[in-house]
Specification:
6-stranded antiparallel β-sheet, 3-stranded antiparallel β-sheet, about 160 residues, alpha+beta, 4 helices
Length: about 160
């Protein structure tokens, strides 16, 4: 049993390492490089979603979410611009020698924190607060729901 658990842990590490190294095919449109949203989800664990009632797209990876501009729709396929995606998520794009495939590398969480607070039009970062009863609530607890944040002070 113990050997089986170790084997599963090693296999999981190999699969996770492979997913990080996955190169995604790029597509050139009007002199700009794009990647398919489906490929980002499958090979890079980056989710691309549209904002309800808007044309903007949101990219989420790990603990980061940001609005990405410049996406294109080609039939059922959503193409996301590489440059805007890397800027939105604080990632580095590593291309193959021909520029036909790309891998996204993310900086540490400390570097992400250095980006600064959310600005008008950006998604709010996940945060946690202590409730009056001593419990903890996170913004991510309300994922998929609309949230109004009313912040005030009495001084």
């Amino acid at each position: 049993m113990k050997e089986t658990c170790w084997l599963l842990l090693i296999l999981g590490a190999v699969v996770a390492a492979h997913a990080k190294d996955a190169m995604i095919e790029t597509k050139e449109r009007a002199g700009r490089l794009f990647v398919a949203a489906a490929d980002l989800s499958k090979d890079a664990d980056i989710a691309i979603k549209s904002l309800p009632g808007q044309k903007q797209m949101v990219a989420c990876s790990r603990d980061r979410c940001a609005v990405v501009s410049g996406s294109l729709r080609e039939g059922d396929e959503i193409l996301v611009p590489v440059k805007e995606l890397t800027e939105a998520l604080g990632a580095m794009a590593q291309f193959d020698e021909k520029g036909q495939r790309v891998r996204f590398e993310f900086s540490s969480q400390a570097a992400a924190a250095a980006i600064g607070p959310a600005r008008l039009g950006q998604l709010a970062p996940d945060f946690r607060l202590v409730k009056l009863d001593g419990g903890v609530v996170s913004l991510s607890d309300f994922h998929g729901k609309r949230v109004l944040i009313n912040s005030w002070a009495s001084w």
